[in-house]
Amino acid sequence: METLDKDLRSIQEVRNLIKKAKEAQARLATMSQEQIDAIVKAIADAGYQNREKLAKMANEETGFGRWQDKIIKNAFASKQVYDSIKDMKTVGVLKEDKAHKVMEVAVPVGVIAGLIPSTNPTSTVIYKALIALKAGNSIVFSPHPNALKCILETVKIISEAAVQAGCPEGAIAVMSVPTIQGTDQLMKHDDVALILATGGTAMVKAAYSSGTPAIGVGPGNGPAFIEKSANIPLAVKRIMDSKTFDNGTICASEQSVVVEACSKDAVIAEFKKQGAYFLSAEEAAQLGKFIMRANGTMNPQIVGRSVEHIAKLANLDIPAGTRVLIAEENRVGRNVPYSREKLAPILAFYTEDSWEAACERCIEILNGEGAGHTMVIHSENEEIVREFALKKPVSRLLVNTPGTLGGIGATTAIAPALTLGCGAVGGSSTSDNISPLNLLNIRRVAYGLREMEDLAEKPAAQTGAASIDLGDKEQLINLIVKRILAEM
């Protein structure tokens, strides 16, 4: 019996999954809002009930992060995302403007390809399934090979719960043989309507280059500016909480800290008090070799790893209990590793003479990497916050909150999401936190209000207005005089 190569098996599996997903989506498109909502609730409940099991599986399989924090992420992806969308109208007539005679109707996009990263595997599956099904779509997942087992288990759990709630089988599917060729087939298949891409830069670029409409996110590299009016102990606490959450695997986490010279000593003292270790110049150079690979991409050996693991990797002797490693820096660039995205408990530390200089430094960091994503400012000065809001090339400017949890909408009032759009400046098709409303089209039913004749300009004779050249002062004066004499 002939055995197919792995890439051929992967391609055939994708074709089979898409076929079933398309059939399932056709049935979803006929369901009522109540039926869709029942399916979505079942997915959320199943994800929440298995949050600890899936967190431990993800941590054990990938080695990234902390399973305790992954429980929180799974709970966020299921419960908090569900609470934000449960009352959202996504089926049938969304809005009707009787005065202007325009009606808006929700139309599912169809089959969605969901690309899943290894950094946040189980939580991203739960989240993407929720928003896809809420909008009446089916979804086929392409899992990162390094997180295959936990992703397969997550899909099994939520798809079984969805089917029991009335969901057509095949509406939530996943590749069990992930290959580059299979994922390429998924993204380029004619029956896939949209790609929802979360992952590395190469994956997102491939999604946008596939010829299929895509929503993808670029890298995060958010600086955190501690302005002199800030509550320094609280600002430092928020940054430390954020950067250590799941060992920094969320792309909205802070990557550098920017301070004014007048508050530098106080900020450094507070960071040390809360468990940060400032590297010497020699230690910073030693660790810097492990942050980026020769090709300029982040070294996977540090991603989501603990401070202890990273220190051992770089042969550093650090104090027990260290939570975050910090290196002072004054440069920005592709070859300056501390100025780049570091999905690990490592921060760069910049000092500037004024808030204006800090503003420019943050822009420089973002333009180097991370434009369109997220940054944080800690300040009690509303005018400075406003200046940052007007100038920063980001889609999310977070104020007095941890970057990680603020960016995804856990500690802020923006849409709870695990896919964060970066806008055009970041190479993304949207700047939104992605919700079901990004995964449906809107059909507008518009009644005529005017006839063609109403659009034509009436001749001057019909309007009673004289046609004059306003540039001819003498003609204008004569006309005014004639009108005055006629009224006497």
TrEMBL record:
Q: Which SUPFAM superfamilies match?
A: ALDH-like
UniProt keywords (A-Z) are: Coiled coil, Oxidoreductase
Q: Which residues form the Aldehyde dehydrogenase domain?
A: 12-327
Question: Which GO molecular function entries does the Swiss-Prot or TrEMBL record give?
Answer: oxidoreductase activity, acting on the aldehyde or oxo group of donors, NAD or NADP as acceptor
Tell me where on the tree of life, at the top rank, the source sits.
Bacteria
InterPro entries xref list: Acetaldehyde_DH_acetylating (IPR013357), Ald_DH/histidinol_DH (IPR016161), Ald_DH_C (IPR016163), Ald_DH_N (IPR016162), Aldehyde_DH_dom (IPR015590)
Which residues, by range, are in coiled-coil regions?
4-34
One Pfam family cited in the UniProt record for this chain: Aldedh
Q: Which NCBIfam families match?
A: EutH_ACDH
Would you tell me the protein name for this molecule? Aldehyde dehydrogenase domain-containing protein
User: What species is this protein from?
Assistant: Paenibacillus dendritiformis C454
